[in-house]
Amino acid sequence: MSDTKFTMKTVWPEVRALIEPRRGMLALGLLLVLIRSLSGLALPFSPMILIDRIVIPKRPDLLPALVLGLLAATAVQAVTSYVLTQLLSMEGQRAIAELRTRVQAHIGRLAVGFYDSNKTGTLVSRIMSDVEGVRNLVGTGFVELLGGLVTAAASLVFLLRINTEMTLVTAGVMIGFTVVLSQAFNTLRPVFRDRGRIQAEVQGRLTESLGAVRTVKGYHAESREHSVFAEGVQKLLANVIRTLSAQSVMQLSSALLLGIVGASVSWYGANHIISGKLTLGEYMSYNMFLGFLIAPVFQIVAIGTQLTEALAGLERTREVMNESREDADPKRTLALGAIRGDIDFEHVDFEYEAGKPVLHDVSFAATAGSVTALVGSSGSGKSTIIGLVAAFHGPGAGVVRVDGVDLSTVRLDSFRTQLGVVLQDTFLFGGSIRENVAFSRPDASEAQIREACRIARVDEFADRFPEGLETIVGERGVKLSGGQRQRVSIARAILADPRILILDEATSSLDSESEALIQAGLEHLMSGRTTFVIAHRLSTIRRADQILVVEEGRIVERGDHAALYEAHGRYRELYDRQHGLEKNLFLAPGEGDSVPDDADGRRAGGGEPGMLDVIRGSGR
Q1: Going by DSSP bridges, is the β-strand pair 546-551/371-376 parallel, antiparallel, or unpaired?
Q2: 132 and 10: one domain?
Q3: Per-residue confidence at 595, pLDDT binned at 50, 70, 90?
Q4: Which of 585, 551, 549, 580 minimizes the C-alpha distance to 565?
Q5: Residue 419 lies in a domain
Q6: Is residue 471 part of a domain?
Q7: Structural domain containing residue 202
Q8: More confident site: 97 or 539
Q9: Does residue 444 come out as left (phi exceeding 0), alpha (psi in the -120 to 50 range) or beta?
């Protein structure tokens, strides 16, 4: 019982948020249920009149009034049932839509770390499946249950008036059954909760598998994925079987209740009729009222199970809603206007997990309009620094400032609208090229969209499609090549016109010819903006105002290309090793800059390789 109280306490905020705007609707629904229930009592009341006042006394003149009364009561029941279904069933579906919208909006504003810890399919299940049971809380289920209880209470009053002794025996049996039901529902709630978790896991893995179909087929792993999915389905089946077993026990108890009550009423009723304590009409009405008393019990078994499932789903929903939004920090009160783009890191430490530091005492300054390149081994902390610049995370110690303002005090919406990101793993939505470019600035004009596409050379391949910019790119942009997807991503960033730009290996998906085509677009994009580059092609790195060499979470070297190369430190070591140069065979730092890359990413005429080779060798 305590478990049930805990559940109600946990989910009550969600239940209240759904019920309060619908109090008038639910009150009207309850009134209609009361009218329907009371009109339904005409039928069990009729045998007393029919037998005791019409048949036995032989008064056929009273029969038309009784029949008309029953027909009127039936009509009232039919009309109220129709209105209830139209009113509350639709309202239940509206509640589902509203809750889904609220959960999605909340999840969309959670910190990046939340997404790192939860699978996409699991979150989809939270949004789409866990809220389904809400229709039983604000729809017909809950009101029907209340109406059934009202009918049972009214029936009990009539039963006590007809024969108290038989009613007390019946009530004793039903109290015992109620105890059994209470225990069964307490058992079912955690089972339903586990079902939601298992279903989310299975759906999460299925979503991953379908999204990575090329990888699965490339490694001929269809059978393995099938086995993983089948194992999850079996876990779900075992959970459903547990639920069905509990429901079977409740149905068995219901059948036993009906049998025991029926036998008791037959025994006492026959004796009371013989002794003259009960008329035949009263006995017939008693049995019909008894049916109206017991029917809600069977209704509780069905609707109560649905409500228990709804509460379990809401409990899981509440877990997500309790997650703090990334903009919920009370310190984030400062709304930025147009920024210059000065970024300062001052003695910044960071860790994703307690006791496992990722960055150590990182300090540097990136002035407005400058280009800062980050190089280093894979896992050295470059992406973490970028994540702090984008305010995806906050420092554990130290301060990150934008234009001299502590970034942890800034409202994220005012900062992120001035931020542009071009990633190596370009994500496109399954709409048109135009929609993907305009994603960063939905209110952009047609001329602005076309200009961004021109600068990023998107028009060069889009114009070859019959639909042009209206061409559908497919899920994740699968109908475009890697280079084409990257050009769309760059056009999206150009259209956003950000003050701070992050390029995370932005041209690594492009061949040399494609990179040459969009190099002017990149230069246009970087011009006058504070740019952070996780090293990609050599030309960008060499022209960077400062290069930060990051190793094991520390900045071990900093300077421009020429200074770092001449310092013979970690940068020179990475540069030489990844260019495959031997002691006296490497080229001078500026040599070969004007020679274009060939299709292999190396300088035409046997010169040095492009930065693509550097990054592929060193990782991030």
Answers
A1: parallel
A2: yes
A3: very low
A4: 549
A5: no
A6: yes
A7: 2-321
A8: 97
A9: beta
**What pLDDT, on the 0 to 100 scale, is given for residue 558?**
92
Whether residue 312 sits in one domain with residue 438: no
CA distance 561 to 548: 10
- The answer to whether residues 437 and 304 belong to one domain is no
Does 295 share its domain with 161? yes
Instruction: Please give the backbone phi and psi of residue 582, each rounded to the nearest 5 degrees, phi first.
Output: -100, 175
- The CA–CA distances, whole Å, from 16 to 13, 190, 611 equal 5, 22, 58
Tokens of 430: 């399954």
pLDDT at 2 > cutoff 80: no
Higher pLDDT, 430 or 381: 381
Number of domains into which the chain is organized: 2
* 316, 440: one domain: no
Q: Is the separation of the CB atoms in 441 and 416 below 8 Å? A: no
Residue type, 583: K
At 330, list the tokens: 């009370």
Over 231-287, what HEC string results? HHHHHHHHHHHHHHHHHHHHHHHHHHHHHHHHHHHHHHHHHHHHHCCCCHHHHHHHH
| pTM exceeds cut of 0.85 | no
Which of residues 449, 476, 497 is at a domain's end? 497
Single out the residue in 284, 302, 321 at which a domain terminates.
Answer: 321
**What's the CA gap between 73 and 37, in Å, rounded?**
10
Answer whether residue 364 is part of any domain: no
Please give the full DSSP string across 292-339, using - where no structure is assigned.
Answer: HHHHHHHHHHHHHHHHHHHHHHHHHHHHHHTSPBTT--TT--BPP-S-
Tokens 């998906």 locate to 509
* 183-219 tens-digit pLDDT: 776 777 677 777 777 877 787 777 767 766 666 666 6
pLDDT of residue 1: 36
| Same domain (yes/no): 303, 439 | no
Between 520 and 57, the higher pLDDT residue:
57
pLDDT value for 9: 59
Domain-located, residue 578: no
Predicted confidence band of residue 517 (pLDDT cuts 50, 70, 90): low
- Residue 20 a catalytic site member: no
Residue 452: closest CA among 401, 490, 479: 490
What phi and psi, each to the nearest 5 degrees, are found at residue 410?
-95, 140
Lowest mean pLDDT among 165-169, 387-391, 392-396, 494-498: 165-169
DSSP 410: B
Dist. CA 597–CA 580, nearest whole Å: 16
Query: Per the structure block, which two tokens stand in for 455?
Result: 């600068």
The first and second tokens of residue 109, run together, are: 């504003």
**CATH code of residue 127:** 1.20.1560.10
| Tens-digit pLDDT profile for residues 112-154 | 778 777 777 777 777 777 777 666 666 666 667 777 777 777 7
Active-site residue (options: 505, 515, 557, 608): 505
Q: How far apart are CA 458 and CA 434, in angstroms?
A: 10
> 306 and 451 in one domain?
no
What amino acid occupies position 270?
A
